[in-house]
Design brief:
heterotrimer; A alpha/beta (340); B mainly alpha (281); C mainly alpha (319); B: 281 residues; mainly alpha; 10 helices; C: 319 residues; two-stranded antiparallel sheet; disordered C terminus
C-alpha cells in the first residue's frame, strides 16, 4: 500500500512538473490543412528552442469554438467566420483576425471495386449523389461522362462529415453554386442536414470510411486521398473542362480572388473562373485573436505566422497544397502587426 | 414417441444448448485477446513506447505521450476519487443514519449508472470552461466522478461483511468507534476494499468518451493544465483513420491497454479469491 | 456471512469522544460530497439544456430534423437509434446470457463454474473503445460480406432487412452491444440462480422432473426477479455506450426502418458534435439529449436495483 501511494505521489510530481521550459501554445481546428500544420509546427519547434505548438485537428467547427471560447490560443478553419460568429467572439472580448495559410482542394474520392481510373464528375452528378437522387454507380448521369469505364450497378454509399467542418463548407458551397436544388434543400455551411449518407469525424474519419466501404464516395482534402492511394475524380469546372485537383489547378482558382483580396481575407474561391482552375478549391485560415493576453505567447505566435508565410510556404507543394499568392502574403505581413 | 423419451430428448438438447451459450461467450473473450495479440503484438516495439506521434502520412513514431498522459490523468483521478469514495463507503457501512444513508446509497448507485459521456459534459462545464482550456485535470475530474461511486459501494460492501464480533470485541476493550473502524474493521475488510479500488481504477483507465472534450489530445507531452494525450482517445483516433500505419498503432495501443486492464482485474480478483460453493440438486 | 453489521453496531453505543465526533464529521462530509456531485450533475444538465428546452419545447422529442444551420433540432433519430440498438443487443444477449447462466449454476461443477465465471467477468472489463477497434476491422467486414447478405437473402421481404449491406449500422452496433452486455446478464443471473434454495430443486426431481424441467419450470421462475434485474442492468449499460457504437453505427442522423441501415445514438452524437457545437441552441440541444439519456438510465437502473434487491432478500441459502 505504501509503495502504491509513493508511486502515485511520484506520478503527481511528474505530472505537474514542467517538462521543459518551452513555450507551449495550444491550437485546434481544421483537419483540411492538418498534415502541413503539424509538419510545420514540428519543424518550427525544432528550429526555435523547442516551442511546442500543439495542434489538434478536431474540425473547423472545433477551431472556431475553441478560439471564440478562449479554450485555445488560436484556431484554424477552412470556413471563414461569418459576421455573426465574429460578433459573438467580439462580445466575449475576442476580436479575431483571419490569416490565410495555404490553398487546397476538396476532391471526390471513391472506392469502387474494379474501377481504378479517374472518374469524371459533373456538377449534376455530384449534387445528385449527395442529394440521394442518383442512387447507383451506373446511373446515366455519371455514366455519360465516363464512357469506357465499367461502372457497377451497385448502390452508392455516400460519406460525409459528422463534425462542424470547413471542408464540408467548401463542398456544400460549391454544390450550392452549381445546383439550385442543393441550395434550396440543403445549403452551404460547416454542418448541414445531409439527405443521405454515413458520417465520419474529420477528414481522416471520412477517408477511413471510404477506404473500408466498397462502392463509397467521400469528399476529402486532396492530400488525404493521395497519401492513402485512394482514387479521386475530376470535376467539371465553370469553363466546362474536367479538372483534377492539384497545386496548379488550385493556384489558378485562387488567381482571380488574389487580385481582389478583401482586407479581412474572407473569400470563397469555389467554382472560380479560369480554364484550368479546380472548382472545389479553398483558402484555409488561422483564426488569431487581435489581443493575446500573454505577451510571450503573442510574440511566439506572431513569429510563427511570419515563418509560415515565408519558410513554411516552401513546404506546400510537397504535400499538394498550393502556396499563397505573393500579394496576399504581403497583405498578411501587415496584418501581423495588428496582433498584440 | 413416448412422453418420457420426448422429455429426455428435450432435456438433453436444452442442457447442451446452455453449454453452447457458455462456450460461445468464453470463446468471444479468447478471440478478442487472440486478435489483439496477433495484430498488436507485431507492432509493439521500443519506438512505440518512447517516441511521440508523427504528422499524418508519415510513418513511425510512437505513443509515448499517450501512455504517460493516461498515467497522469488516471493517477490524479485515483488520488481524488479513492479517498472520497472510500470515506463515503465507510460512512454508509458504519454510520447508519437510516433515511439519509439510504438516500446516499441510492445516489451512489445512480452515479454509477451515469453514461460516461454525460460525466464528460459535467467536467466540461465545471473545469474546462472556467479554466479556459482543455486539460488533463478536467479529464481526471471526469474520471474521478466515475470512480467515486464504484469505490464507495465496494468499500461499503466489504466493510459490511466484517463480522460483528470483531467490532464488539474492540468496543468491549474500550476503543472508541473511530478507532474500531480504523484499526479493526477496515484492515479486516482491506482485501475486498483494495480489490474494489483496483477494479475501479482499471475501469476508468479504459474510458475514452469522457476524455474526448476534456483532455482532448496533444502531439507533445501534455500535463494537467493543458490538453493531454491518452491511450483510449488515441486508440479511437488511430482506428478510424485511413493510414495503415496509424491502424497498426491502434492495435498495439489496444494490446497495451487491454494488458493493463486485464492484469489489474485478474490480480485484484485473485487477491480476493472469493470461492463460492454451489448448492445444487 | 452477510450479517447486518451496521444495524447491530448502532445498538452498541460507544463512549462519545472527540475523535469520534471528528471521524463522523469527516465521513459524513465525503458522503455529502458524493451527493453534491450527483446534484451538480443534474443541475448542470438542466441549466445547460435550458436554451434548447425553451426554444424547442416538447417537439424536441418527436422531431427528426437535425439542422445546426437553421437551429432546428429533434431527438427522434437518436432516441430511435439508441432504443433499436439496445433492443437488438438484448434480443441477442438474453438467450445467450441466461443460457450460459443456467449452465454455470446448474450444470457445471463448482470449480469449473467459478473459473468460467471469472473469465466471463473479464469480458465486462474490456474497454468500450477496444470493442470498437475490433468491430471496425473484424466484425464490420464480416457483416458486410457474409452475414448481412445472408440475412437479406433469407429475410429480405421484411422491411427490417432491406437496403444495401454496409457492414455498419444498427445491426452491427446491436451485436457489439450484445457482446458487451452478456457478461452482466450472466454474472447477476448466475448469482440469482445460485440463490434458489436447494430443496426447490430436490422436490422437483423427486417428483420425477428432468433436470431441464426442474431448471426451467422451478428454478428460473424462482430467480426471475434477479434475472430481470440483470437484464435491466445490461440495458442501462447498452443505452449509455458511446465509443463502440459510434465506431460502427454509421453516424447518420435519420430514422431508418431497416436494421441494415446506418443510424445514430444519443451518446454517439454527443461524442461527435459536443466539442464544436457553437452558438447557444446547438450545445444546449446536445445537453438536452444528455438529459434524456440520463433520465432513462436512472429509471432503468432504479428498476434493476429494486429487482436485484428483492431477489437477494428472498431466501438466500448459501453457506
Amino acid at each position: 500500500m505504501r509503495t502504491v501511494s509513493w508511486a502515485l505521489t511520484g506520478l503527481l510530481v511528474v505530472g505537474t512538473a514542467p517538462f521543459a521550459a518551452a513555450q507551449k501554445i495550444n491550437a485546434c481546428g481544421a483537419s483540411f490543412p492538418a498534415p502541413i500544420y503539424q509538419k510545420w509546427f514540428l519543424e518550427y519547434g525544432k528550429a526555435h528552442q523547442g516551442v511546442q505548438i500543439n495542434y489538434e485537428a478536431n474540425g473547423s467547427g472545433g477551431g472556431k469554438k475553441g478560439v471564440t471560447d478562449g479554450t485555445v490560443d488560436f484556431g484554424a478553419s477552412d470556413m471563414p467566420m461569418t459576421d455573426k460568429e465574429l460578433a459573438d467572439a467580439a462580445a466575449k472580448g475576442r476580436k479575431l483576425l483571419h490569416f490565410p495559410t495555404v490553398m487546397g482542394a476538396v476532391v471526390p474520392s471513391y472506392n469502387i471495386p474494379g474501377v481504378t481510373q479517374d472518374l469524371k464528375f459533373s456538377p449534376e452528378a455530384l449534387a445528385g449523389i449527395y442529394l440521394g437522387t442518383i442512387k447507383k454507380w451506373n446511373d446515366p448521369v455519371i455514366a455519360k461522362d465516363n464512357a469506357g469505364v465499367k461502372l457497377p450497378a451497385e448502390d452508392i454509399v455516400v460519406v460525409h462529415r459528422t463534425d462542424g467542418s470547413g471542408t464540408t463548407f467548401v463542398w456544400t458551397d460549391y454544390l450550392s453554386k452549381v445546383s439550385p436544388e442543393w441550395k434550396s434543400k440543403v445549403g452551404a455551411n460547416s454542418a448541414v442536414s445531409w439527405p443521405v449518407g454515413l458520417g465520419g469525424p474529420q477528414n481522416a474519419g471520412v477517408m477511413g470510411l471510404v477506404k473500408q466501404q466498397p462502392n463509397s464516395i467521400g469528399y476529402v482534402e486532396l492530400l488525404y486521398a493521395s497519401q492513402n492511394k485512394v482514387p479521386y475524380g475530376m470535376v467539371k469546372n465553370s469553363a466546362g473542362k474536367f479538372i483534377k485537383g492539384s497545386v496548379d489547378s488550385v493556384t489558378e482558382a485562387a488567381a482571380g480572388a488574389a487580385k481582389d483580396m478583401p482586407k479581412d481575407f474572407r473569400v470563397s474561391i469555389t467554382n472560380a473562373p479560369g480554364a484550368n482552375s479546380y472548382p472545389i478549391s479553398s483558402f484555409t485560415w488561422l483564426l488569431v485573436p487581435e489581443k493575446i493576453s500573454d505577451p510571450a505567447k503573442a510574440k511566439e505566435i506572431k513569429a510563427m505566422i511570419r515563418w509560415v508565410l515565408t519558410d513554411g510556404q516552401k513546404e506546400c507543394p510537397a504535400l499538394d497544397y498550393a502556396p499563397l499568392p505573393k500579394n496576399v502574403v504581403s497583405m498578411e505581413m501587415k496584418q501581423i502587426d495588428a496582433v498584440q | 414417441m413416448s412422453l418420457s423419451l420426448w422429455r429426455k430428448i428435450v432435456n438433453a438438447v436444452m442442457l447442451t444448448l446452455t453449454g453452447v451459450c457458455t462456450v460461445f461467450t468464453i470463446s468471444v473473450l479468447f478471440i478478442i485477446l487472440g486478435l489483439l495479440l496477433y495484430k498488436g503484438g507485431s507492432s509493439l516495439n521500443w519506438d512505440f513506447f518512447t517516441k511521440l506521434p508523427v504528422p499524418p502520412g508519415e510513418t513511425g513514431g510512437g505513443l509515448a505521450n499517450a501512455i504517460v498522459g493516461s498515467a497522469q490523468i488516471v493517477g490524479l483521478a485515483a488520488l481524488i476519487g479513492i479517498p472520497i469514495g472510500f470515506l463515503a463507503g465507510v460512512y454508509l457501512s458504519e454510520y447508519e443514519d437510516k433515511q439519509f444513508a439510504s438516500f446516499v446509497r441510492y445516489v451512489a448507485d445512480l452515479l454509477n449508472g451515469v453514461p460516461s459521456i454525460i460525466v464528460g459534459i459535467l467536467a466540461w462545464t465545471l473545469v474546462v470552461l472556467p479554466m479556459k482550456t482543455m486539460s488533463g485535470l478536467a479529464g481526471s475530474i471526469a474520471l474521478a466522478v466515475m470512480l467515486i461511486p464504484i469505490v464507495t459501494r465496494q468499500t461499503e460492501q466489504f466493510l459490511r461483511e466484517v463480522p460483528l464480533a470483531l467490532r464488539e470485541g474492540a468496543l468491549a476493550l474500550g476503543a472508541s468507534k473511530w478507532r474500531t473502524i480504523a484499526t479493526v474493521v477496515v484492515p479486516a475488510g482491506s482485501k475486498g476494499i483494495l480489490t474494489g479500488m483496483i477494479l475501479g481504477v482499471a475501469r476508468i483507465a479504459g474510458e475514452s468518451a469522457p476524455l474526448l472534450f476534456t483532455a482532448l489530445n496533444n502531439q507533445y507531452w501534455g500535463g494537467l493544465r493543458e490538453p493531454t494525450a491518452s491511450l483510449p482517445v488515441m486508440i479511437y483516433k488511430l482506428a478510424i483513420s485511413p493510414y495503415d500505419d496509424w491502424n497498426r498503432q491502434a492495435w498495439a495501443a489496444g494490446l497495451v491497454l487491454i494488458a493493463l486492464v486485464l492484469v489489474a482485474n485478474i490480480s485484484a480478483r485473485l487477491v480476493l479469491a472469493k470461492g463460492v460453493s454451489v448448492p445444487r440438486g | 456471512m452477510a450479517t447486518p453489521a451496521a444495524v447491530q453496531t448502532a445498538k452498541v453505543k460507544a463512549p462519545a469522544q472527540t475523535g469520534d465526533i471528528v471521524a463522523r464529521f469527516v465521513v459524513l462530509f465525503f458522503a455529502v460530497v458524493l451527493l453534491a456531485l450527483a446534484v451538480l450533475l443534474v443541475i448542470e444538465l438542466f441549466i445547460g439544456s435550458a436554451a434548447a428546452r425553451h426554444s424547442l419545447g416538447w417537439g424536441f422529442l418527436t422531431s427528426s430534423k437535425w439542422n445546426p444551420v437553421s437551429e432546428e433540432f429533434g431527438a427522434l433519430p437518436f432516441i430511435y437509434g439508441t432504443v433499436i440498438t439496445s433492443s437488438v443487443a438484448l434480443l441477442l444477449s438474453i438467450p445467450f446470457g441466461v443460457g450460459a447462466a443456467i449452465f454455470l449454476s446448474e450444470l457445471a461443477p463448482a470449480g469449473v463454474s467459478n473459473a468460467l465465471t471469472f473469465v466471463i467477468e473479464l469480458l465486462a472489463a474490456i474497454p468500450s473503445v477496444i470493442y470498437g477497434l475490433l468491430a471496425i476491422f473484424t466484425l464490420v467486414p464480416l457483416m458486410r460480406t457474409t452475414i448481412e447478405p445472408a440475412l437479406k437473402a433469407a429475410f429480405g421481404f421484411l422491411p427490417f432487412f432491406q437496403g444495401p449491406a454496409l457492414g455498419v449500422g444498427y445491426l452491427t452496433a446491436g451485436l457489439v452491444l450484445a457482446i458487451m452486455t452478456i457478461p452482466f446478464i450472466i454474472s447477476v443471473s448466475r448469482e440469482s440462480l445460485l440463490a434458489v434454495p436447494r430443496d426447490q430443486r430436490e422436490a422437483a426431481l423427486a417428483l420425477g422432473a428432468t433436470k431441464w424441467e426442474t431448471t426451467w419450470q422451478i428454478v428460473v421462475p424462482y430467480a426471475k426477479l434477479g434475472i430481470l434485474g440483470s437484464i435491466f442492468l445490461g440495458l442501462a449499460r447498452a443505452l449509455g455506450e458511446t465509443m463502440a457504437v459510434t465506431m460502427v453505427i454509421g453516424n447518420d442522423p435519420r430514422v431508418h426502418a431497416s436494421l441494415l441501415a446506418s443510424g445514430y445514438s444519443i451518446a454517439a452524437v454527443i461524442a461527435n458534435e459536443f466539442a464544436e457545437a457553437n452558438g447557444t441552441i446547438h450545445p444546449a440541444a446536445l445537453i438536452e439529449l444528455g438529459l434524456v439519456l440520463f433520465g432513462v438510465t436512472v429509471v432503468i437502473n432504479a428498476f434493476a436495483r429494486l429487482m436485484i434487491i428483492a431477489t437477494t432478500k428472498k431466501g438466500s441459502k448459501r453457506p
